[in-house]
Amino acid sequence: MINLGRLHDFKDVFGFFARQLTYPEKLDFHPSVIEKALGPSHPAYESVKTYWNAMHEYSMEQIEEMYVQTFDFQKKSTLYMTFYKFEDSKERGQMLARLKETYQLFGLEIASSELSDYLPLMCEFLYAADWQGHEKEAAESLELMIAVMEDGTYHLLKALEKANSPYFYLIEGLRSTFKACIIQEAEAHEHD
Fold it and tell me: Which end of the chain is more exposed for a tag (fewer CB within 10 A), N or C?
């Protein structure tokens, strides 16, 4: 079960993850970006700080090249979250349709050229969507989205670790953020 209040509290952090996982731009690495996104008490702070410090060892050109080599040319480190489980099967198409319905439920349209399981898009959605006041309707859709992201980032994390990529720490931080939003079973029964 997802703690939707906690998920909402982390909206800015999901915006940070979305920006860091899209093609890099110089402004994405300005010191104020990390300061605005999360503080030392955030569960992802240590991982994200490690990522941030590692990335600042590279030139912008090197970061751009690393991004393309990591996410565009390596099948094992794709940013399409359902690809790991379904590759190009019929089930993947069904899951993409369900994710697209989630975006539409919140009044967000995605470009027809974009797949709904693209990790930066999913993070951007969690940053932009407003489910407060509609928690009951939102719960199932958001749980599906988080489950897809959690499953996909597990495989992505393993590939990035094997490649010794600084993006490993960014994905580790994203996964720490998910974990902080999950209501543990004992805690969930207290709310019944």
Answer: C
